[in-house]
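Let's practice the habit of predicting before peeking. Look at the sequence and jot down your guess about where helices and strands might fall. Then scroll down.
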Amino acid sequence: MLRPAALLRRLALGTALLTALTAAPVDFQLPAQSAADALLAFSQQARVEVLFPADELGAAQANAVQGNLEPDDALARLLAGTGFAAHRFSGGKYVVRSTAQTSGSITGRLLYPDGKPAAGIVIALAGTRLSATTDAGGRFSFAAVPPGKRQLFANAAGWHPLRIDNVEVEAGRISKLDDQRLQPVRELEQLEPYVVQGRSARLRPIDDSAALLGPRRATGNLDLPRGADDALPFTIYTREQITRSGVVALNEFLQRAILEGDASARPPEQSGSFDSKQAFAGSSNLKLRGYEENETVILINGRRLPEVQISSNQQPQPADVNFIPLSLIQQVEVLPASASAIYSGNPVGGVINIVLRPDVTATEVNATYTNATGGYDAPQTSFSFQHGQSLLDQRLRIRLSAVRTDVEPPTETELGFRRRHAAFVPLADDALFRATPNIRSHDGTPLFGAGSATFTSVAPGADGNGGLAAFNGRAGVRQLDFYDSPAGLSASPITLDSPYGRRQRRDAYFGSVTYDPWPWIQIGLDVIHSRTVMNRGLDVLTGNFTLAAASPLNPFHQDVDITLVDTAPLVGENYNEAHIDFSSAVGGLLLRLPRAWRLSSDFLASRSVVKYRGLFGADTTRWQSLIDQGVYNPLRDTQHYGPPTAFYDSVLIYRGGRGRFVTLGDYRTLDVAARVTNQELNLPTGRSSLVAGADYRRLQLRDYAEEFLYADGSRAADPMLRRGRQLERYSFFSELQTPLAPRRWLPQWIRKIDGDFAVRYVASDQANEVNTVPTVGLRAAFAGGVTLRGSVTSSKRFPAPFLSRSVALPGGPDGGAANQDIITDPRRGESYVAQVDDNVNFFLAPEDAVTQTAGLLFEHGEEHHFRATLDFVDTRKTNEMLSLDANGTLALEALVPERVIRAAPGPGETVGRVTRVIVGNINASSRRSQSWTLGVDYAWTGLLGGTLETHARVLYYQRYERQLLATQPTVDELNHPDGTGSGLLRYRADFGAGWSNRTYGFGFEGQYFHSRLLPDYERIAQGDKQIRPYWQFDAYAQADLVRLLGWKTKRYGLRGQLRVNNLSGFDYPKYYYDGAASGVQPYGDWRGRTYSLSVTATF
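Done guessing? Here is the structure:
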């Protein structure tokens, strides 16, 4: 990976070389004459278009130009000394303006809805007599426009009038507008202008505008267009915001930006936990409004984003949004409501729809590098390439993209959280796993003679052969330092090399083809493939062993107990490695019918294969045997002296065999849909949008046989067979967005009243599921910029059948196979194998959720633009289902004793072993949440030649209650939490301000995380009743490097950004029970203060 400086130099060099390319020389014969006449003659001889102010140039005298010259050189000679200069635009046009820079220019492009150029359309500049006609490519230009905020109009028969507001024109600058699309008129009606914003004065990456989403494509976004002012309370995160964040993966951006997400949970790739299942958990942190991860639906272009599933996870896992390269994303739409009617699934918490960029005819290269500022190296890098091109008179459009992302996590050596936390965690002698082995007398006899200590520890660097002398000065000395593994990372919280996250490399490739064989039909195919390679370093093995008095290795001449840590460095630091191969294809057919009707059919097919190579653990019985035989020396410093060969051959247990990758999950999905849409439907009440259709979804997880083998291939345990299964669902749906009354019926103080109505019927024979869910949204816009909105949405879920179940032999009492699994018995404090049966509860009630929202919007001003929103969201959930696995059932044994069958207690036992656990779904009673969201935005477009923007958004939970069972009391999770709910914060906020013009921009952003009350059982160890509040402040600076460096090019772009996160450097608040054993609650990057450098080149 290139360092940032080297990458910047190469991009700059490449841009400079491209700039040097000019048109072919022309034989010019131009006598000295008036500048206006000379430019007309130049235009004819060079066969190019030249725009100039004729009145001003008529009085200027041009120079004679003769000879074979390039057009740029000829124009420069022609206008030398006249006080005017020519500037070349894309498409070969020239604009001549005064070097005194008393005026600016406007250029743009007008397209039809299907993306084809709108030629011959007249564009008028309001307040002047200037007009322009679009050329064959749909391009138009205005020269010598006075500075200020301008307005453009376009009119054409059969099309809505187009008005472009707030076009910022600066003296000596070219205002290049985004591509604009005409809107067709299908019936006789009052023609109101279709209004868009000029947005020409902002510094931004290409294609950040929502207006660039373009017309419906065969494989594009299935959803109807959504906006922040809709009847449903959507929040839109633009490409500009994503780019400004400086991240290398989408999940990290969403973790920061979505206030309704779980602030206390880290993205799995940044988790400090060493739970093996977390490695394949998808974006489990994106659970909205305190509900579970499977109650947030994640979509890509309106289709369900396929998940990654492994056989050991019985229920479907959340999708991993990081499979989507950032360079492909146009915007992210978030709806915190239970809108199953629109999006299917079970979106009790809400919906996240990731919208991909439309077809872009450009080449873009981006590099992003982030690292810590704290004097250590934990880099994250991303390099992406994207190219789009139109062929066959724009009937064929192709796009290719490739992305490489690398992440190196920080370690305990660099952060020190776990060591500081360990000082406050009391440990028993048999759990003191540290840098060197800790030793204690087996029966309490002094180790070094009468009256001496009964414990000691191995000296650092000892080889285990120094006898009693090796312990001189170490009587009564416990080893408390963390273990330093011999090679790279190590996957345990007790080591100095334990990572906070995982080392990861991801390569993603995307290809898209869209073809219009005839104007009425379009076919498309999008394909993506990614491979993710990740690991957390060496496995760390721990154990408690006895060194017999008679052993030649024992210098104490009495039985001693030894607590030690060891690794297997000869297998390699990256032996424990996972590969996730994810592939998906989207194919579509779109028919353009009369009167703006569209008939489409599409499919999404995906497959994810998870392979893993690694250790299952160590056989402690064989390990003890090697000690008894004198083959394994437990008195050596295991940090410096590795285990013997016999340890690798007979003690280590390998998954599937030594050196083999085993398939943990082979998961496939298929979604097929057909729909009819019309976004220009003329009803008696006004222009409306309609979509109706049907879809089918199939999930399939293949069987998996899990084997545990020694190095010689012999079995360490019976194999575990996990049976996969196939699930199918189908649904019928429709949605109508329409005005509720014609505009002419409304009084002047009401601008419009419209609604959003949707319904979906869902069924599944396999899941015994049949349900119908509606959605209703209403909006009323009043004079003065005030809008009221409200909605009622619903979600209904039947129990989701498990995708896999474990089956083990030998058989049960009747000779058939019994379902066996390893359980953890909290009452006995041990793990063992027990029979686990799935109970089919035919009386289980479906889970119902209803979300009601009410909102107030206010928007006012143009140069000083102010926008405020206030939304209230209330969700009631009844018959909530708990999917209990074996360990979950055991944890609730007191509440569901009929599901746990135990044997009679043995001698001296207070409780017997579990013989059978009945798992499955049960109905909990209810859950209810109420929250408020306040958003305020202000923009001043005329400040110092640029735009000042400020924003603030606050989320407030008014209520969050949960009742586990009808026989239990309702728990207030905000004021008196019991620990069963998510890490809810009563308040959470983000805010920021920034200023930018066309050359550079800068700003700051901040986040606030309110205190979180803890359940009673956590408060003693915490030393407080809550986790303290936390603030974070970030700053960024952006620049258009082409303009900043004065390069003479209009076709190529080079933009850069430097961002510093966590400028304040505040320590994360203390949290004793953090799952990463760090003792803190991280609300941002584990690395603390970080910087991010991004460079984007376009051509």
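How did you do? The chain has four domains: 26-100, 102-201, 245-410+504-538+573-614+659-799+841-880+924-1098, 425-498+539-571.
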